[in-house]
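Page 47, continued from p. 46.
Same chain as before, 431 aa.
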Amino acid sequence: MKRILFVCHGNICRSPMAEFVMKKLVDEAGRSQDFLIASAATSTEEIGNGVYPPARRMLASHGISCEGKTARQITRQDYAAYDIIIGMDTHNIRNMNRIFGGDPKGKVRMLLDRDVADPWYTGNFDATWRDCLTGCTQLLKEIGEESWYAINIEAGRLVFTLFIFYKRYFYYLCPQFLIEDTSVGQPASLRQSSAPSLRIRQDRRTSCPPPVSAHAKSNIKVCRNMNFLEEKILTTGVIKEGNILKVDSFLNHQIDIDIMRQMAYEFKRRFRGVEVNKVLTIEASGIAIATLLGDLYDVPVVFAKKSQTANSTDDKYISHAYSFTHKKLNDVFISKPYLHATDKVLIVDDFLADGEAAHALIDLVKQAGGEIAGIGIAIEKGQQKGGAMLRKEGYQVESIAIIESMDWQTQTIHFRSQEEKPLLSTNLQAI
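Result:
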């Protein structure tokens, strides 16, 4: 039996797609009994979570069910348990070598001769499907060739042994005269194949330096003690007079989809184990984050409106929120059909200062009789009271970037639990 393990970062997109594509191929070939096929992650971020909904839908569109699959992390024991261990990209390979303590038997390889693009960042699940199908089809062909070689090598070795025994009995008694064969006694699956793409990999490094994140541009030196959002703030944000942080290049005016997607993924990780059946935000800047998070959870997204329209109904929940940015009190409302007593609501917003918007959204949920599952914030102004107040009230508040202080004159910003670093714009020296 050939034992194959597919591996990616989180085990919710690429590796489960490859796993179930391979299972379908071997089933169609009538060889299911000859294979044990599974998938796993190099990280702990998605342990216990099911296949990412868009990946699940892509498999389903090709008649493949991944029902019951949940993410798990690889262990050192997996190296002994599987014959072939396949990573989706070079980062996966390095992380596997770190976890396994190297690759002494040459089991670790790539699915393709290039990285399989992560659809979490690209959003292109069609391309990932094609890559998985191409790689798995070639792998099945190579395993067939490997089996043919193994059978013929075994047959040749048997014939040669019998010949030696018959013609050279002395040599049989004195094995020092025979050519040493280090593969004797090993199972065929561990012997180096003549198939070119199954050759032993040369990259056997056991250390795993932190990879440069997908969002980091080539002209930016990534600070390893910062997360992706802090990096983005440092490289594109501007502090205006009055210590107002301007991030409209990626969040408040122009939307950087990659950053939104990463924030959604980070919120999903931080609220792992929390039951959520609805994502709630307030117009307008929180909508992009909430939409991608709703897609990740596969649940509806609702946003509270600040202005009445001709389509507004009288049957709605209403609260009030003071805007720190606009210096005005806003009525915020949600039509009653979109919030229910059975809802477990994850609140998401772009900024948290005094907590006015968050408390308004909490009030709307309470009016409906729903439950607050948590509060996810992109950027929290830690020097203001909102975050501390919400946490004191017992809510789980997760802020990806927390600003302790900033100075518009020196263009410096201090993130919580970090060294003070300069806030850079494109015309300043890169860090």
